[in-house]
Write a structure and sequence with these properties.
By secondary structure, the chain is of the alpha+beta class. It has three helices and seven strands. The strands form two sheets. The protein has a four-stranded antiparallel β-sheet, sandwiched between helices. A hairpin with a 2-residue loop joins strand 2 and strand 3. The chain is globular and about 45 Å long.
Length: 161
């Protein structure tokens, strides 16, 4: 078993990356829109493989402005301090709890460099992701809000430089 993490910056994206990324987002089932275009919204993506099988993804993507809105977290006054978001994290069910998401988050943050970074995640449904974010310097800000895609509540996590 060989674990491999591929960090791909926007300028190096190829159709093979877009295809893999799109397939994984479709499996996740929590992203709307054209899946093939999602990788192009990203500053960088990370694809994790266990041997040759893709098992996990993540990205630094353009921020979701609505997460800061008064209808959601209520932190509109902080929105201008953030340009990028840690997101699109997904791990195949049979590969969960093996450290893929944690490693992807660390690698993306390390490659991102300095600067404020935001993330939103399901706060009660996904306690592992909350712990990963907190371990990497993110803190929950504002109020939780109900997702318009699924039945769970989301929280806005911010990491200041």
């Amino acid at each position: 078993m060989k674990i491999y993490y591929d960090i791909v910056k926007k300028e190096n994206l190829k159709d093979e990356h877009r295809n893999v990324f799109s397939e994984m987002l479709q499996k996740q089932g929590k992203v709307k829109g054209n899946m093939m275009s999602k990788a192009d919204r990203c500053k960088m993506i990370c694809i994790a493989k266990d041997d040759s099988k893709v098992v996990s993804i993540g990205a630094i993507k353009q921020k979701t402005d609505s997460d800061f809105s008064n209808d959601n977290s209520g932190l509109e006054d902080l929105a201008d301090q953030f340009e990028w978001e840690l997101g699109y994290l997904f791990t195949e069910n049979d590969s969960e709890r093996k450290g893929f998401a944690s490693t992807i988050v660390r690698l993306l943050i390390d490659n991102y460099g300095d600067g404020n970074l935001m993330a939103s995640t399901e706060i009660s449904k996904n306690p592992v992701m909350v712990k990963i974010l907190e371990k990497n310097g993110f803190r929950l800000f504002g109020r939780p809000w109900k997702s318009n895609i699924h039945e769970n509540y989301l929280g806005l996590f911010l990491k200041f430089k």
